[in-house]
Write a structure and sequence with these properties.
Blueprint (H helix, E strand, L loop, with lengths): L2 H5 L1 H15 L3 H13 L4 H21 L5 H17 L1 H4 L8 E6 L7 H12 L3 E4 L6 H11 L3 E5 L6 H13 L7 E5 L1 H5 L3 H4 L9 H23 L1
Parallel strand pairs: 1-2, 1-3, 3-4
């Protein structure tokens, strides 16, 4: 057991039971556990980070080590997304802070879970989020960014093969003078394995998880504001 797991014991217990329910194809049981935890006052952000995110990592690891089939992995992911959507009435009732996030997967990227969690966590913090889902064509992403003028763009890639698509998308954003200086954060497994990769493809940062993404977003917005203020004076 890692230090992290020991520190978050109540979550560790719930995460393990949740994972076991999913692996035993007991989606309703998994859903019931989560809704009960929310009713008992557990913070939804904590459920996202310590239960959903940690379970997805573990299920991904089991799949990579051939301990579960791709069908099982897909079932667990789909079930988790269904359960996340049951929490939306709680999530979308927060007061707004005036900031906007556009979150998308690069063209060809089918694993949308991570970036969807990021969008939901931002929504809980009062952001207006526009989540574009898996495998979104670059033109559509660019159009959405031009229309909405978000403060932050979050782009995800779960396999190395899709990094080229992320790089192309960032290049298109930087080339478009209306949106060229929008802050871009990236995430996904390839970026964890290669910590400098985000710099090479022109992003502004690469947070390791959704909570870190929030604080990085705040930092990026503040520093951009300072630059703009200094140009005014």
């Amino acid at each position: 057991m890692t230090v992290f797991e020991e520190e978050s014991e109540p979550f560790f217990e719930l995460a393990k039971n949740f994972r076991d329910a999913l692996l035993n194809v007991q989606r309703d049981e998994a859903s019931r556990m989560i809704l009960k935890a929310v009713e008992e006052g557990m913070d939804i952000k904590d459920i996202y980070i310590h239960v959903f995110e940690s379970s997805q990592h573990e299920i991904g690891r089991l799949w990579q080590n051939n301990k579960i089939t791709v069908a099982q992995e897909h079932f667990c992911t789909a079930a988790t997304q269904m359960i996340m959507s049951q929490l939306y009435p709680y999530i979308f009732s927060t007061n707004k802070n005036g900031h906007r996030l556009v979150a998308a997967c690069a063209a060809g990227e089918m694993h949308e879970m991570g970036v969807r969690m990021v969008a939901d966590i931002f929504e809980m913090q009062g952001w207006d989020t526009y989540y574009l889902g898996a495998n979104t064509p670059n033109e559509s992403i660019i159009q959405t960014i031009s229309d909405l003028k978000p403060d932050i763009i979050a782009i995800s890639a779960s396999i190395h093969y899709n990094i080229a698509a992320v790089k192309d998308l960032i290049k298109l954003i930087r080339k478009n003078k209306d949106i060229s200086n929008t802050n871009i954060i990236v995430g996904g497994r390839p970026f964890l394995l290669s910590p400098e990769l985000w710099k090479k493809i022109g992003a502004d940062g690469c947070p390791p998880n959704a909570i870190e993404a929030l604080s990085l977003a705040d930092e990026l917005i503040s520093s951009k504001q300072m630059v703009e203020d200094s140009h005014v004076h």
